[in-house]
Amino acid sequence: MKKHLIPINKNFYKANMHCHSDWSDGTYTPEELKKLYKEQGYSVLAITDHEGLFYHSELDDPEFLTVPSLEYEFNEQRGENFDNWIVCHLCIYKKDKSDIYQIGIDPDWKHPKFKWMHDERWDMAKSKGEILNKAHTPEAINLAIKRLRDEGFIVTYNHPRWSMEDYSVYMQYEGMNNLEIFNTGTILGGFDDDNGVVFDDMLRSGKRVFCVAADDNHTPNDMFGGFIMLAADSLDYDKIISAFENGEFYASCGPIIEDIYVEDGVFGVKTSTPAKAVCFHTGTRHSACQKAEDELFEAKFTLHEDDIYVRAEIIDKDGKKAYTQAYFLAEI
Questions:
Q1: Are residues 115 and 220 in the same domain?
Q2: pTM of the full predicted structure?
Q3: Structural contact between residues 150 and 180, judged by C-beta atoms closer than 8 angstroms
Q4: Predicted pLDDT of residue 294
Q5: 278, 297: one domain
Q6: Of the residues 253, 270, 293, which one is the last residue of a structural domain?
Q7: Is residue 3 part of a domain?
Q8: CB neighbours of 111 closer than 8 A, spacing ≥ 6?
Q9: Mean pLDDT of the 106-120 span
Q10: What pLDDT digit, counting tens, does each position of 135-175 carry?
Q11: Phi, psi at residue 100, to the nearest 5°?
């Protein structure tokens, strides 16, 4: 019997969940970002300006939805040159849009680049509780993640390669919802932030995380490269955020997935755009890559009972990828 692992009876909404406006260190105003992304077929945008949680509800319309969100940073300073610092960046998203506050703003810290901190917008960022410990240590970051999750936020771990974090660091983190498997801005900056290896490291250790592709755009050049496709009945905030929290989405840089399924011990993916290859990864060394002489629209992979989990990467003729979530065999 075929079991669909992503809803096929729902609508798919294109979303960028990591985006910066000129309120912090981006180029465009929130209004300009809406126009640009909507023109490219996006329905959902999280404007994750640094350190400030805002809900741009004035941008919402029946075909476009914004998500109250921000990007926090935890820095290990190594000298005066930022290029030498090791950092951890987390995007966070509020599940309840009617209660927009952020955790523990430090009233004595104002970054010179972040414009919202230096005018009347400072008073728009509502703070709750004691100041968040922003030390770059696993203990501080794990406490922050727990506190954020407890306060109703979804947490994404961003661009580990750009952050200069390696296995010994990121494997100590606990409790995040998502890993950024692809980041347009850092890829264009020369970093190998196509993070399938990091994803598998986390999955093989038992961490339950979903994968996200996003832009992290700061300039006109690093836009429309990575996105997710959210499966929901309608463009309703609660339904969109539920799909995001529960992994009812896939990540992509171009290819469009039509179906992800398991049937009689076989894991399969169907696409509505042609692929040149589909690669399957598991929690063991058991893997496979199917290549097409011309075009490939469906690929299948026979599972072994000890595979732990399975996921797929779809690659099109231009080398652009789509990424399924990882599905644990004990649950499917």
A1: yes
A2: 0.96
A3: no
A4: 86
A5: yes
A6: 253
A7: no
A8: 50, 51, 117
A9: 93
A10: 999 999 999 999 999 999 999 999 999 999 999 999 999 99
A11: -90, 100
Claim to verify: residue 214 and residue 160 sit in the same structural domain: yes
Are 286 and 204 members of one domain?
no
**Domain shared by 296 and 242, yes or no:** no
State residue 202 phi and psi, 5-degree precision: -70, -45
Residues of the chain with pLDDT > 90: what percent? 94
- Residue 219 contacts residue 148 (beta carbons within 8 Å): no
Summarised one tens digit per residue, pLDDT across range 4-25 is 999 989 999 999 999 999 999 9
Q: How confident is the model at residue 82 (pLDDT cuts 50, 70, 90)?
A: confident
Distance (Å, whole) CA 245 – CA 217: 23
The total number of structural domains that make up the chain: 2
CB 181, CB 195: distance < 8 Å? yes
Burial letters for 92-101: b for 16+ Cβ neighbours within 10 Å, e otherwise? bbbbebeeee
35 contacts 63 by C-beta, under 8 angstroms: no
Q: How far is CA 229 from the centre of its chain?
A: 11
- Per residue in 283-329, pLDDT (tens digit) is 999 999 999 888 999 999 999 999 999 999 999 999 999 999 999 99
CA angle 184, 44, 248 (to 5 degrees): 85
- How many other C-beta atoms lie within 10 A of the C-beta of residue 296? 19
Is the pLDDT at 80 greater than 90? The verdict is no
